[in-house]
Amino acid sequence: MIGIVRLALRRPYTFIVMAVLILIFGTASSLRTPTDIFPNINIPVISVVFSFTGLPADDMAGRVVTFYERSLPNSVNDIEHIESQSIANYGIIKIFFQPTVNINAALAQVNGMSQTVLKQMPPSITPPLILSFNASSVPILQLALSSDRLSETQIFDDALNFIRPALAPVPGAALPLPFGGKVRQVQADLNQQALHQYGVSANDVINALSLQNLITPVGTQKIGTYEYTVNLNDSPAAVDAFNNLPVKTVNGTVVYMRDVAYVHDGSPPQINAVHVNGASAVLLTIVKAGASSTLDIINGVKSLLPSVSQTLPSSLKLTAVGDQSVFVTDAVSSVVREGVIAAALTGMMILLFLGSWRSTLIITLSIPLAILAALTGLSLLGETINVMTLGGLALAVGILVDDATVTIENINWHLEQGKQIEPAILDGARQIVVPATVSLLCICIAFVPMFGLGGVAGYLFRPLAEAVMLALAASYVLSRTLVPTLANYLRTRLVRRCRSRPGESQPQSARTLPARLRALFRTCPQRLSGLDAALSAEPDQGDCRIPMLQRSVVRACALPRPGLLPNRGRWPDQASYPRPDRNADRRNDKSRRPDRNGHSRHRPVE
Questions:
Q1: Nearest CA to 18 among 380, 369, 363, 358?
Q2: What average pLDDT does this structure show over 134-159?
Q3: What percent of the chain has pLDDT over 70?
Q4: Are 307 and 169 in contact (CB under 8 A)?
Q5: Position 271 in a domain
Q6: Is 172 left (phi over 0), alpha (psi -120 to 50) or beta?
């Protein structure tokens, strides 16, 4: 380590450039690193959702979910455990994987297994919905859509078909289906009396709709020099056209759809509802996906809202609610503010005790550089700027100042001994290199057990330990390189200026508060020895005289013999002394006054 200090003294510009690079890369890392409330909790989970309308929960569990769970270990690797839930119409299977799994390969394996076992399940079941998420996939923003003129079906349709595709390009944003509103669905309401009257069954209506609502690709037809696209009238172009479809011929009479049913634009039964200010609305949730920053996702969504609003009806109100960026910004800013306050108070205490703005400047420069170096290391390790990492940096601020402070103070002490600046720096660094190294290792060892934590606790506290250890390591390196370089430059000018003044043989640091305290402590043994000699001296009849050591420390006093004390308490040897005559003392007022030497003239009563 002494070799590094010598190198710093011989090549100061190298370490000045190092400090500039730390400043540049640290600032870039702080701006580019994702910002969030908590670190990324990488617990990979794949959710598989089966839907079968009308299937009871028992049949869903026995015929779909259980069979699927038993088939998963055959083709899917790195499974930690499986959880499932069966309810009416739905079966939900959650597959938890090991933290080291390749989630893309796991998704491909789950998708292939789902398609393989689909034919062995009840007929007409649809392929499952497969979703991938982790513990960090939480809602970060919600968009509330409301209108005084549009129906719930129209609001839901706008949110599903217009707003979601427009917001899909935002990196890291996942948009599930909207909540609330009504799903648009073309429905045919059957008239039971009319069906009975015309002799038509519900199956006849279904067959008529199936045969006359077809999508058949026809192609083109070339006639002469032109090629025409051929369209068939096998599917109605409007909802009202369904009412004109023929259903069945009964006794030579054609029964139309409008005779036995009413086809209209409707919706299935609503299973959830959203209200904004008492009015029905639709809620569109933006979920954080991947390692993108929460602030970046929310800012990206908000930047697209003005252009999206222009494509919507004028009566549709789009309001952002549940904005998590407010909490993220408050949490991060509060931690940063506390760290700045701690650094400012630390600088004030250094200025108070060292008494030199040059030494304070050197120490206060090392603190932000160590923090910026730690941020660069955290960015390289793939961590984010969150409450845990910032808390670790704020915790390390009080420790970061130790290395630079001890180095500067030791250099000042050697300067007070009359040494030149470079020998003072080398001797000061040589004396503290072993204690500083041992202190660094002891503090880092205290945080090593956090790397052995598993589960959610490990994901939360490992970034904190990394932040503290990186900051301490950066501070240790700066105290051996940059601090001696700046001390050699700034303190050299101070020593030259002090030595050029007549009558000044010591630098300004000799007049600081620590120097004055050391001078006071050096004279304390002499003062205490004088006090001990005075107390051990043989008293002269009735007096115990203590000489004047310092006017501001000990004053002269005269203590009477125990027999002359007032009778306000019971002394153990009180009976061996005669009781004083107080009236005689009052009559002889002159004898109670001290003489010119400050000694009392009071004498014991015979």
A1: 369
A2: 85
A3: 80
A4: no
A5: no
A6: left
Could you say which of 469, 489, 508 is where a domain stops?
508
DSSP letters for 487-498 = HHHHHHHHHHHH
34 touches 382 (CB < 8 A): no
Residues 403 and 380: their CA atoms lie apart, in Å, by 25
For residues 28 and 100, state if they share a domain.
Answer: no
In which domain, by residue range, is 120 found? Answer: 44-133
Say whether both 346 and 471 belong to one domain: yes
Written as six digits, the tokens of 64 are: 């779909």
* Cβ atoms of residues 318 and 305 within 8 Å: yes
Burial class of residue 496 (count of CB atoms within 10 Å of its CB; 0-12, 13-18, 19+):
exposed
Give the domain CATH number at 126.
3.30.70.1430
* 437 lies in the same domain as 387: yes
- Collapsing DSSP states into helix, strand and coil, what is residue 85? strand
pLDDT mean over 124-142: 83
Give a yes or no: residue 288 inside a domain.
no
CB–CB of 408/487 below 8 Å? yes
Residue linked to tokens 């000489």:
547
Residue 313 inside a domain? The answer is no
Query: What is the rounded average pLDDT for all residues in the chain?
Result: 78
pLDDT for position 86: 92
Main-chain dihedrals φ then ψ at residue 589, nearest 5 degrees: -65, -30
List all residues 6 or more positions away from 605 whose beta carbon is below 8 Å from its beta carbon: 578, 580, 581, 584
Rounded to whole angstroms, the Cα distance separating 362 from 368 reads 11
Residue 73 has pLDDT above 90, yes or no: no
Nearest CA-CA partner of 458 in 395, 376, 388, 385: 388
Q: Say how far apart CA 324 and CA 525 lie, in whole Å.
A: 64
Distances (CA, A) of 384 to 37, 252, 389, 460, 555: 9, 77, 8, 11, 64
Residue 96 in contact with residue 45, Cβ under 8 Å? Answer: yes
Backbone angles phi, psi at 246, to 5 degrees: -75, 140
Name the CA radius of gyration of the chain, rounded. Answer: 44
Decide: helix, strand or coil at residue 317. strand
Helix (H, G, I), strand (E, B) or coil at 131: strand
3-class secondary structure, 70: helix
Whether 436 is in a domain gets the answer yes
Helix, strand, coil % in the chain, rounded to nearest 5 = 55, 15, 30
Whether the pLDDT of residue 24 is over 70: the answer is yes
Helix axes 12-32, 357-380, angle to 10 degrees: 50
